[in-house]
């Protein structure tokens, strides 16, 4: 599995994190939150992607499908509806 570089995680911009926080009802955000959020998101994505790739490899495919991701999320207790 290809490792995420530090540059890629910086692609999650401050405004993007701020928008997510606003959607969650947060009005003011400490400056330290941005790096912390990137760290938490990186760990979450690594876990989901690892599980999705495991499903893909088990099915002897080379392409990760949306259902692989849905099953990976379900395995982690985060059921996602609307993708099959």
UniProtKB/TrEMBL annotation:
Pfam family, one: CENP-T_C
Gene3D superfamilies in alphabetical order: Histone, subunit A
Domain CENP-T/Histone H4 histone fold per the UniProt entry, residue ranges: 20-78
Primary location group: nucleus
Compartments where located: Chromosome; Nucleus
Keyword terms: Chromosome, DNA-binding, Nucleosome core, Nucleus
InterPro entries tied to this protein: CENP-T/H4_C (IPR035425), Histone-fold (IPR009072), Histone_H4 (IPR001951)
Annotated GO MF terms: DNA binding; protein heterodimerization activity; structural constituent of chromatin
GO cellular component: nucleosome; nucleus
Function: Core component of nucleosome. Nucleosomes wrap and compact DNA into chromatin, limiting DNA accessibility to the cellular machineries which require DNA as a template. Histones thereby play a central role in transcription regulation, DNA repair, DNA replication and chromosomal stability. DNA accessibility is regulated via a complex set of post-translational modifications of histones, also called histone code, and nucleosome remodeling.
Protein family according to the UniProt entry: Belongs to the histone H4 family.
Subunit structure: The nucleosome is a histone octamer containing two molecules each of H2A, H2B, H3 and H4 assembled in one H3-H4 heterotetramer and two H2A-H2B heterodimers. The octamer wraps approximately 147 bp of DNA.
Protein name: Histone H4
């Amino acid at each position: 599995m290809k490792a995420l570089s530090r540059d890629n995680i910086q692609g999650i911009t401050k405004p993007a994190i701020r928008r997510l926080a606003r959607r969650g009802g947060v009005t003011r955000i400490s400056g330290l939150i941005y790096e912390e959020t990137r760290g938490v998101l990186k760990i979450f994505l690594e876990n989901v992607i690892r599980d999705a790739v495991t499903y893909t490899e088990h099915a002897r495919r080379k392409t990760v499908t949306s259902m692989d991701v849905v099953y990976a999320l379900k395995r982690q207790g985060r059921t996602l509806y609307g993708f099959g």
